[in-house]
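Look over this record as teaching material.
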Amino acid sequence: MQFDPSPSPNFNERKFPVDMLVLHYTGMASGAAARDRMCDPKTEVSAHYMVWEDGRISQLVSEDKRAWHAGVSTWQGDDDLNSRSIGIEIVNGGHDVPLPDGTLPPYPDAQIAAVITLCQNVLSRHAIPASRIVAHSDIAPARKSDPGEHFPWERLADSGIGIWPATAMDDEPATALRPGESGKAVSRLQEDLKAIGYGLSATGTYDDPTLLTVRAFQRRWRPGHLSGVADVRTQHLVRRLRELSGR
């Protein structure tokens, strides 16, 4: 692949081998502004790659170095995810810079095609399990929403990048679970989400961290339903994802 060189000084040495891929949107008014921010040493922010709307790709940090994109985050019991991951920033205003009508700006086809090719390229060099290809919102559900519910995760999964669950499943849960509820069903939901990778404790109470985690799950795998309520369909998908993650 051909990359536009845009070297960032914001990196240091890795502490672990690469076994994760984290996707973000830039959340800024323009790609140029995002690139300048990630190349400014004062910001202490960077990523390995940035994908522009027209499909161009800028490489900011070498893959063997630790870029600073994940922040305080956790996945499958691991922290210091910057040391474990390749970070890809996708130029898109997202929730921070919505369209005038309040909707989220689309991801152009050329951009998504480039993201897919880049991800496939990264996966050819690193042993990254499908369950460790994640959204920024997955690893930091209380802080982040990117790359947003408008990002086409199913299209990526169809290209061999990440997981997209089938709909059919036996033994479906019977009722929805809501904030404030408690009991064994809530504990099971929390345990399933934790097994998938989310940094959630099985308290048995549908507390604020559970609501935010359920919403992050829905943003990724049920983007038309961001209630934070674990309805029957959401519980179904959580169980399926746990199965597919092999955890």
Q: What stands out?
A: The first helix runs from residue 31 to 38.
